[in-house]
Amino acid sequence: MNEIAGKPETEERDLLVFGAEAFTSEEYARAEPDRLWRKVWQHACREEDIPEVGDYVAYDICDDTILVVRSASDEISAFYNVCAHRGRRLADGCGHVQEFRCSYHAWKYNLKGECTRVLDREDWGDRLEQDRLDLPHVRVDTWGGWVWINMDPDAAPLREYLEPASSMLEPYELDRMRYRWRQWCHFDCNWKVAMEAFIESYHVEGTHPQLLKFADYYTWSQAESLHSFHGFDEREAAHEITGNNTITRTGRGDDARQSIAALQVELIETVNASTTQTFVDASTRLVDELPEGTPVDEVMAHFMASAKADDAVRGVIWPEIDPDHQAKCGIAWHLFPNMTIGIGITFALIYRVRPFRTDPDKCIFEAYTLERFPEGQEPETEWIQADPYEPGAWPPVLLQDFDNMREVHRGMRSKGFRGCLPNPVQEKPVSNFHRSLADYMGTGAPRPL
Ligand code: FES
Ligand SMILES: [Fe+2]
To answer: How much is the pTM?
Structure first.
């Protein structure tokens, strides 16, 4: 692991270059379903999406379509969402059913995917085997409050696949968080271009310059197995304080009372994530609660203690996480292949990107925030399709990232582009993404620089 303090090391294996094929080639995109998407664990939905028996989510990935169903109070089943008769998709989106009834010729399936009705079955005589009628199962498991699926019967178990991310993130109790908002859109770029816009913070100066007045954004990054993560190099003692995960930062300026509040307000207003109303309220009270000149570590300690106390009063008990562990976990994780978790003590910002069918130029982009709420006070949310060009439809910081996604997708197709040169210290998640991709896709690994 990198040391949190001091300059992170540059490793030889991260001094590399790779071409644009993974982003632009139609052949590569057509190979992805077989080599990648049918082999990896991917989250299909949250457990909270399917709380009642009969609730389902239809999860589409490239040409595959899978039903994830609460088939019993303590059981989730997953099977292909394709009628055994002539291949009609059985369900779309999400909903609640007693059974699945195909809208073409009215065959029926129970919540475990077993075929329960074939119209005029006797027409086949005794030639229809039940096995041939039941919907083929897909592996399913849960971690972090998500329901994960895997189409490969020989894949490693979910937990093994996610390590060490799963163990390191376990203390955050992501399973106890719930949606605060969730949005999606179709986006005209390769899914990897979109994913890479959210797995490093090296882009802050270029893309989000307004944030520079609040803090430094020099980052360390770390690859572990298929996955990776990055964080800020907080040299202040403040990161020792429980609850401060380096997202909840001291900010810039002489008066920590004001700089902490300024950053929290900026985050809620321009990202609508990466903090909570509790943190915003506790931060804006600092100027009233502490005298001018209070040392930064005391301000941060007070800020954290009062946010924690405020949450406790409303029934949100913070998980106990060792401050060193929090510092080690950084601010954001890339879980291979297509998920990012921006992590905080009581909140998370998630991105998921999927290819649209096998089109290398189109993806399905989703962003959502999770938060820990008092039990019974979780907000009712639903997926909102938000136009990426419509002013106000997405938080302003994301619009800045969207610009990069469009322009990178275009730029890397130009003859003059000689391949990506990821920063060997701060963009290890990008390098690792392409190493992992190359392993699955059977393409050449990124070249040494
Ligand atoms: S395709 Fe489903 S019943 Fe015919
Ligand atoms: Fe960004």
So the answer is: 0.94
Q: Where are the domains of the chain?
A: 39-162
Q: Tell me: the pLDDT tens digits for 279-299?
A: 999 999 999 999 999 988 899
Contact 55, 69 (CB under 8 A): yes
Q: In a mutational test of the pocket of ligand 1, which residue from 100, 107, 116, 128 has the highest number of ligand atoms less than 8 Å from its CB?
A: 107
Give Cβ neighbours of residue 47 (< 8 Å, ≥ 6 apart): 76, 142, 145, 146, 147, 175
3 Cα: distance to centroid of ligand 1 (angstroms): 59
User: Phi then psi for 333, rounded to 5 degrees?
Assistant: -115, 140
d(CA 52, CA 74): 10
Residue whose CA lies nearest to ligand 1 atom number 1: 86
Considering only 96-110, 253-267, 353-367, 393-407, which range has the smallest mean pLDDT? 253-267
CA of 332 to the centre of ligand 2 (A): 12
Q: Is 108 in the pocket of ligand 1 (CB under 6 A)?
A: no
3.30.420.480, 3.30.56.70, 3.30.43.10, 2.102.10.10: CATH of 39-162 = 2.102.10.10
Distance CA 52, CA 70 (A): 6
Ligand (nearest to CA of 81): 1
* Closest ligand 1 atom, residue 106 Cα: 3
